[in-house]
User: What shape does this take?
Amino acid sequence: MKCIHIITPVKDSIDLTLQTVEAITCSTITVPFHYTVYNDFSTPENTERLRKASQDLGFELINLSDLTDHPSPNYLLILQKAQEKAIAADAGLLIVESDVVVKEHTLQSLYDGALQRPDCGIAAAVTVDENESINYPYLYAKGKENQVFPEKKHLSFCCSLLTPEFMRTFDFHLLNPEKNWFDVTISHQALENGFVNYLFTSLTVWHRPHSSRPWKQLKYTNPLKYYWLKLTKGLDRI
Assistant: This one.
């Protein structure tokens, strides 16, 4: 793993997204890296804000409207494109979602932690709220703070690094195109392929759950409506 490719998939929620982007671009990273924001059909106004931010902050902006007419979400296409580029560069693929804010040394530390573990398939930073308390989707890790341990449950892609060694064993073009999200499938595939997935509760990132997809808040405020939408509209397929 010679370098890292950092990606952030984005659809609107632009103010929070720019907090994510700024935290990444202001990180202290010694390993060579390339940062790409994949704009998944944000509004024209927000697309323009992302374009300007790419010029100001120095990241690559890829508008998926230039690549496909498939409606959002296009997470599968993003993963496939990012995997191809990462493998070609012998790079780790570090996914930071647009509702996450990393700390100054998070990304370098995650890279170092993965590199030190030759069996690592995925390395993930744990998510916390504004009070540094572990929150969704890692509630199962409460009580295991300030540790690094193998995790047989799936790891979220909130802030996760996929090693090139693992990615070379599993082509993302084999993922089920009927799904929307793939962290569960890919986590399990890494284990099946003989790798170990590590959760770093010693590395915390601030997570605002579902800020980029507000309708998912219904899962907590109105679960009947959430599951009705999930069933009838085919949303949020995992």
In short: The domain at 3-232 is CATH 3.90.550.10 (Spore Coat Polysaccharide Biosynthesis Protein SpsA; Chain A). The longest strand covers residues 196-207. The chain has a mean pLDDT of 92.
